[in-house]
Amino acid sequence: MYQIGDYIVYGNEGVCRVDEIAPFHIPGMTAERLYYTLTPLYHDEKIYTPVDTEVFMRPVISREEAIELIATIPGIEAAAYENKNLRFLNEQYEESFQSHDLIKAVYIKRCSANERGRKLGQIDERYMKRAEDRLHEEFAVALGIPKDEVREYIRKAVGGEEET
């Protein structure tokens, strides 16, 4: 169970702070369940979710884990999605996004497109932005830097290679 003040990645909401852990009273229900009150760091809202929810939840990575992960970026292999059927391409990206395993696939596709003198399509760009946002949110918290400085931090850390 997480504690008040912990930072977690919650579903597709991104990084959230645990603000409260308390029973949530629902009229007509006798069993009281404990709920987290979560505040997304980069959205203005509150989320109430049972502590035993099936929604993907994990602690934000540590500073050391973030530094180690950034160092491995150049060597990470991932399949870039190549499909002309936009519905199928969208489904592939959504599945990867739900599994929290997307950023490298889109990054590889972007590099491949750049090498051929082409740009990413709209679907590719949309998922690249979503994946980058989630990655940058978590790295910002782990590294203790503003979110808008993460891209440059990664670029410098991997030796000035093309931006992620």
UniProtKB/TrEMBL annotation:
Span of domain CarD-like/TRCF RNAP-interacting: 1-113
UniProt-recorded name of the protein: CarD family transcriptional regulator
Superkingdom, taxonomy of origin: Bacteria
Gene3D superfamilies: 2.40.10.170, CarD-like, C-terminal domain
SUPFAM superfamilies cross-referenced by the UniProt entry: CarD-like
Upper lineage: Bacteria, Bacillati, Bacillota, Clostridia, Christensenellales
InterPro entries for the chain: CarD-like/TRCF_RID (IPR003711), CarD-like/TRCF_RID_sf (IPR036101), CarD-like_C (IPR042215)
